[in-house]
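Explain this fold:

***
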Amino acid sequence: MTAEAPTAPALPYGRLIPVTVHFDDLDALGLLHNARYPLMVERAWTELWNGHGVRFDGDWAAAGDACNAVRELTIGYEAPVTRPGTYAVHLWLERLGTTGLTYGFRFCSGDGTRTYARGTRVLVRLDATTLRPAPWSEGFRTVGRELLRPAD
């Protein structure tokens, strides 16, 4: 008989992406360093989009929707992470525009029940040659619509 992994609670929107906090991610006080939260959110975001074929492989001209830049990042810290282990990032889209988007995130326990930090990030899709805003592809927009948080 093998033990089954516990299932995460169903999320009403977005995706829950597992992340790992390592010992060297902790600061001198034994807390997850504040700069590591955005890094782990970025890794979760990259993993989510890689699963849909959106990736950067070294060629900006071929990167398509992966050619984007951060316009704004906000984050609020709610509770300290005090030990290494498996956690998660809950990701969703707040807004999907023609050339930009705003996504929301929560850095949380692996099962998504406890929130340690939350925030938003604004991205702008760029043309690789001009570095000016460019429209998201229809394939990207289709996946993005699945990630949109329902209006309150």
In short: The mean pLDDT is 93. The CA atoms of residues 12 and 42 lie 22 Å apart.
